[in-house]
Amino acid sequence: MLQNIRTIDGGGHCSNSINDPIFDSMSRLGWRAIRSLLSCLACVVLIGTMTLVAAEANGLRTYFSEEVPLEIPKPQALSSMDQIVLARVRVLDAPAGLLGFEQSAGSGEAPHEYWSAWLRVLAVLRGKRPELERVYVTFGNGHSYARGPTTPRQLQQDYFVAMYEDDSGFHLIGVPIAAAKYTEWQQEIGAFERERVKSLLK
Length: 202
Description:
This protein is α+β, with helices and mostly antiparallel strands.
């Protein structure tokens, strides 16, 4: 039962207050729940930030992200981030390696990209939508990037890609990927290719 306690202040005014152990206990539990919720939210933000920092620190990149990239590095070839298109796509076939002449776009310069792929643009989240639904892209410079979708499972799902267009066509931009995800991805491709070689040797 709630007990009303009447108090009289120095000015002779009366006031009622509630003195109930159950009420006080519920209030404390409510504040504890709120504090716990805020702590959980803070942890989620912190973990997300730490994951991005770790991905940046290991220098690993992917051109086909299963999640919307938290950060898109600006290529040196671009003067503005406004030139970047962020899209959700489906890879139409496993990426193909480029020959030396194709890698340098016939300019006689050192190769800049090592892979190409055809993509179907499903949605554009940022930037100008390409004129055609099917776009031919090139990607892959350096050695610290995850390979493009190769296994049947990988080719059956959608990806988020960042790209830009210049006189030679569309180029994908590598975005950070966590080391654990990178390792899992590469191992899946390795296992698939080993099984494919075994089947060919039979």
